[in-house]
Amino acid sequence: MTELFSEPATEPATEPATEPATEPANELADELADESPAPPASPSPPAVALRPMRLEDIEHVSRLERRCYTLPWNSSAYATEVGNPSAYYVVATDPDGTITGYAGMWVIMDELHITTIAVDPVQRGRRIGERLLLSLIEEGMTRGAERATLEVRERNTVAHNLYLKYGFEDVAVRKNYYSDNHENALIMWANDMLSAGYQDMLRDYKARLAGTG
């Protein structure tokens, strides 16, 4: 369910097997404008910080998820994922500690499976989703991932464009994948993440994000 990205189509298993029973679904919301520049006259928003998700965050994350997704996970699913050694979940927070977004993934063998990314609808346009995506990719590589996969709703062009920016490519379509409206899911993969070219790209994007607060 990545909702900058995407919506989890199914809740995660208590612990992913060698491969997950179903691949995670990413759905960056159609209305998300995470890549859109802020209006020139607007004051700069406060910088966000990223940190691992904690059990005490789950109540807030669940409320935020219900605002972002039509197919939200149960809060118990997040409690399981936070304690799952194969998983990594992160939250974005404002200086006052308010959670403005969250994201998660599994690393299985050398593959990073992005399960969810979501940003508070009133906070979109601050590039929070991009920061969360970059965080997942970097953490996945430290855990040995060499490629990454996700699913995104076919009509979610904002999320799709962000994933393309980070080297993901469309490889397949899952027809009628999302049960709420039977929308198709695009299956995307990013390969060769350890290559010099991909690493240079990540460093460039990270530097640009650092310059935006």
Structure description:
- With 213 residues, this protein is an alpha+beta fold.
- It has one domain (49-210): Gcn5-related N-acetyltransferase (GNAT) (Aminopeptidase).
- 27% of the residues lie in helices and 23% in strands.
- The protein has a seven-stranded mixed β-sheet with strand order 1-2-3-4-5-7-6, with helices on both faces.
- The chain starts with 48 loop residues before the first strand and ends with a helix.
> What general form does the structure show?
globular
C-alpha Rg (nearest Å): 16 Å
Q: In CATH's first tier, which class applies?
A: Alpha Beta
CATH H level: which superfamily? Gcn5-related N-acetyltransferase (GNAT)
Instruction: Assign the CATH topology.
Output: Aminopeptidase
Q: How many H/I helices?
A: 5
Topology:
Layout: E1 49-52, H1 58-68, H2 75-82, E2 87-93, E3 99-108, E4 111-119, H3 128-142, E5 147-153, H4 157-165, E6 169-174, E7 185-190, H5 196-210
Parallel strand pairs: 4-5
Antiparallel strand pairs: 1-2, 2-3, 3-4, 5-7, 6-7
Key terms:
213 residues, alpha+beta
How would you sum up this structure in a few lines?
By secondary structure, the protein is an alpha+beta fold.
